[in-house]
TrEMBL record:
This is TldD/PmbA family protein. It comes from the Bacteria. GO terms for molecular function: metallopeptidase activity. SUPFAM superfamilies: Putative modulator of DNA gyrase, PmbA/TldD. One of its GO terms (biological process) is proteolysis. InterPro entries: Metalloprtase-TldD/E_C, TldD/PmbA_sf. The lineage of its organism: Bacteria, Bacillati, Cyanobacteriota, Cyanophyceae, Leptolyngbyales. Residues 224-446 form the Metalloprotease TldD/E C-terminal domain.
Length: 448
C-alpha cells in the first residue's frame, strides 16, 4: 500500500461496504472493520539515527454471519477502489462456503442499530525531515536510545444493518531510554497530536536529573514493607492489569474477577479512588467491533465503590444484562484515574522516607481473587530519606493487593495527571493510553 489521501481511503472503504451490502443473500449479515495507518518510524541508538522509514498499511476484516454461524477473514486494504472491491467479493464468496460447514453458535451477536459517526482529528506533527534535527540536539551528549512513531491512524466499521463509523487521527509517540556508562537506564515517553518542543525539553531535563542520580552506588534493600511513591508510568502498569480479569463482567460471572469481593461488599477501596472510561479526549474510537458506541464517559469505580463493569453484547446475551459498549474482551480502552490533591513539588516531602518507583514491569496476578499483583521495579528507582533522594536501589519484586495500595494504604494522589501512551506496534500502531496521576502508598510489600 502506497501513501493514499485520506479522502480516497474513505471513498474506497465506502464503496466496498456498498458492494457487500448489495451482494448479500437472504438471511446473511456482515461486519467489516478497518485497521490502517500511514506512519513514520525513526529508531535512535547512541543519539544517532539508526533506521528510518515509513509504513503504509491497511487490513480489512470481513465477518459473515448466517443461520447462527459465522466466520471471518482478513485481507489487504489498498485504497484503490477496483482492487479493494474485487478482493472483498472474493472473500465474501470464500466465507459463504466456509460458514455453511461450521457449527451453530448460540451466543452469536448479529449487528443491529443505525448509528453512524465520523471523527477526524488533525494534528501538527513533525515533518519527516525535521525529526532528527528536532529530537537529537537535546540529547547529543547522552546515550539516547528510542523510537519515534508518527502519522495517520484510521479505524473504520460498517455492517449489513446500515451502521458506519470512520475514525482518523494524527498522533506521535517518542519512547526512549537514557543509559549510564554502567548500563543503568532512565525511561521516558512523550506523546500527543501536536509536537511540543518545550514539553520535550522539560521531559529530557527531568530524565537527566534521574540519570545523574543513578551514578551513585545502589542501595541494597531488604524485603519488607515500605512507604512508596509510584510515578504515573508505574501506576499505568497497575491500571493495565485491570483489563486482565478485572473490569470484565464475563470474568466476574465466571468467578475470575479481582473485583468480586468489592462487588459483594466484602472489601473496599479508598474513597480517593475514581476510575472511568473517558472517550472525550478523542484518542480512540468509541465504537467497538459490532459498531456499538460506548458512552463518552463511563464511571467504573467512584469513591472506592464499584458502579459497573464492562459488559459486551455477548456477555449481556449470555447473562440477560444490558451491554454498555464494551469490546468482546471487555478490556479498558480509554481509562482515566482521577487526580488527588498532592502538588507535584511536594511528592518527596510527603513521601518523607521510602521508595521512589519510576516504573514497573513483568506484572502478573499472584492471586487474582484477592487482587494480589506481583511485578518488578524498573529503571530509575530510588531510596528517599527525609524528603531527599539518597541513592538508587537494586531491583525489587513487589507483591501486594490492590485492596491495600488502592484501599486503606492509599495516602495521596498527585493533583496532575500524565498521559502514558500505548506505544505498541506489534501488528500496527496502537491507539490511546491511560491518564493517571502519581500516588503515595503506605506499606507496599516487597518480597525479594
Amino acid at each position: 500500500m502506497t501513501t493514499v489521501e485520506l479522502g480516497a481511503l474513505e471513498q474506497s472503504f465506502n464503496t466496498v461496504v456498498e458492494q457487500l451490502r448489495s451482494g448479500l443473500n437472504p438471511g446473511e449479515h456482515f461486519t467489516l472493520t478497518l485497521t490502517s495507518e500511514q506512519s513514520q518510524f525513526t529508531r535512535f541508538n547512541h543519539a544517532r539515527v539508526r533506521q528510518t522509514g515509513t509504513v503504509c498499511d491497511g487490513i480489512l476484516r470481513l465477518k459473515l454471519m448466517h443461520d447462527q454461524r459465522s466466520s471471518y477473514q482478513d485481507f489487504p486494504f489498498t485504497g484503490e477502489v477496483d482492487i479493494d472491491r474485487q478482493e472483498a467479493q472474493q472473500v465474501l464468496y470464500a466465507l459463504r462456503q466456509e460458514v455453511a460447514q461450521l457449527p451453530e453458535n448460540p451466543y452469536l451477536i448479529l449487528p443491529s442499530g443505525r448509528e453512524t459517526s465520523r471523527e477526524l482529528h488533525s494534528g501538527k506533527l513533525l515533518a519527516t525531515e525535521r525529526v532528527p534535527s528536532t529530537i537529537l540536539p537535546a540529547v547529543a551528549d547522552l546515550d539516547f536510545t528510542g523510537i519515534y512513531s508518527a502519522g495517520l491512524v484510521i479505524r473504520g466499521y460498517a455492517d449489513s444493518m446500515g451502521q458506519k463509523h470512520w475514525f482518523a487521527t494524527d498522533t506521535y509517540s517518542l519512547d526512549y531510554s537514557l543509559f549510564t556508562d554502567q548500563g543503568q537506564a532512565v525511561k521516558g515517553t512523550i506523546a500527543g497530536s501536536e509536537w511540543d518542543q518545550s514539553a520535550y525539553t522539560a521531559k529530557i531535563e527531568q530524565s537527566r536529573e534521574q540519570l545523574n542520580r543513578l551514578t551513585k552506588a545502589a542501595k541494597p534493600m531488604q524485603r519488607g514493607q515500605y512507604r512508596t511513591y509510584l510515578a504515573p508510568a508505574a501506576v499505568a502498569e497497575l491500571v493495565a492489569m485491570l483489563s486482565w480479569g478485572g473490569v470484565s463482567e464475563a470474568s466476574y460471572r465466571q468467578g475470575g474477577s479481582c473485583f468480586a469481593a468489592l462487588r459483594r461488599g466484602e472489601k473496599k477501596l479508598s474513597p480517593k479512588f475514581h476510575l472511568k472510561e473517558n472517550f472525550t479526549q478523542g484518542l480512540v474510537p468509541r465504537f467497538n467491533e459490532l459498531g456499538e458506541v460506548a458512552p463518552a464517559e463511563l464511571p467504573l469505580i467512584v469513591a472506592g465503590e464499584l458502579v459497573t463493569l464492562l459488559i459486551s453484547s455477548k456477555t449481556a446475551k449470555e447473562y440477560s444484562l444490558n451491554a454498555n459498549g464494551a469490546t468482546h474482551d471487555e478490556g479498558l480502552r480509554s481509562p482515566e484515574l482521577a487526580i488527588g490533591d498532592l502538588p507535584s513539588d511536594r511528592i518527596l516531602a510527603e513521601l518523607d522516607t521510602g521508595l521512589y518507583v519510576s516504573n514497573l514491569h513483568y506484572l502478573n496476578w499472584s492471586d487474582r481473587p484477592t487482587g494480589r499483583i506481583t511485578g518488578m521495579t524498573r529503571y530509575a528507582c530510588f531510596w528517599v530519606e527525609n524528603g531527599e533522594v539518597v541513592a538508587p536501589i537494586e531491583n525489587l519484586r513487589f507483591d501486594d493487593s490492590l485492596y491495600q495500595f488502592w484501599g486503606e494504604n492509599l495516602v495521596a494522589l498527585t493533583n496532575v495527571q500524565e498521559f502514558i501512551p500505548d506505544v505498541g506496534t506489534y501488528e500496527h500502531r496502537n491507539l490511546g493510553g491511560v491518564w493517571v496521576p502519581g500516588m503515595i502508598v503506605d506499606n507496599l510489600t516487597y518480597t525479594l
